[in-house]
Amino acid sequence: MTKLSATTVSALIEELIQLKLVEELGEKQTTGVGRRAISLQINKDGGYVIGLSFGNQYLRCAIMNLHGECIAEYRTEIEKGNDRIAGQIDEALSYCMQQASGVDSSLIKGIGVSTPGIIDSSGEIVLVSRYLQLNQFNVKAHIAASYPNIPVKLVNDSNAAAFAEFYSGAAKGISNIVYLTINEGIGSGIIIDSTIYAGFQGTAGEIGHIPVDPGGEQCTCGAVGCIETVLTSPYILKKSQAMALKREVPIPAAFGEVLERYNSGEEWLEPIFDKVQYVTTFMLASAGNFVSPEVMIIEGWMNGSPRFMSQVKEAIEAFPFPLPFRQERIIPASFGDKGSLYGAATLMLQQIFSASVLK
Ligand SMILES: [Zn+2]
Prior knowledge:
Bound molecules: zinc ion
CATH class of the largest domain: Alpha Beta
CATH superfamily of the largest domain: ATPase, nucleotide binding domain
Strand content: 15-25%
Number of helices: 10
Oligomer: single chain
């Protein structure tokens, strides 16, 4: 692939073995003449990366080896504001470093951090995150105070999750992907030609704030009737509670209960979910028409309702795209809500292994 001579390859491999990045697996059985081939692999303990993710609910941290295997993991309920989250970062990093006590910290090749909100162009500062109440939070400088020699890179949480599915998850080996996460909010990540597409100033993918419901609910962004006000769990819960009151059925206390009762076929929920299904189909059809991904990956509450998903998949298959979109191309995320954590770490792995000559 590289068009290098065998001698050059041998010399380079020898160098990588010296650096402990590659190891020999032993001789390979061959039938041909000449020197016997030796199998090689990446030495999994030749280096490590750290993933750190700020989620809606948890702050998570993980140390991974070069094979992408987790060797230490930490999770805690996330707090809000620059100072509190800075403290939680210190706690998470020192816990994981302690758990991976055999690891030489000079072998840590990078820390990938996934966060909601807007990130500056250098990938070091969270400019603003409304939800986590972060404001001009210089994550890179904060981590550098304790770990001055480790590169730090920030990435948007949905983009990180999309990248994890692309790198080693449900969409492994697929180069054009739309990833959607639908829970308390909606996030999306777009991968075009194997690269995250973040858009001008990094704000692409705000599909949840496309208005679809004139005269509908007020959205957190300030507009009225955004997709988020129809598809996300807090809004569905609120509408279900109002409907239950009107229909004189027991009022659901939480979204999980609404979904359970819908799955078991309670008929009074049909009108609400009919609209949710219609708007979901609209959203996926728009993404399909606009980006033309090979697959669309879904994370969130919808995966908890096979009944709902099969209706959406059928509607997409029946949708008049220029070329048909088979329902097998809509797939559940394989990492669930850990996608952005794994994505943050694997993005650092990819930086280590990316070789432009092999593209
Ligand atoms: Zn909105």
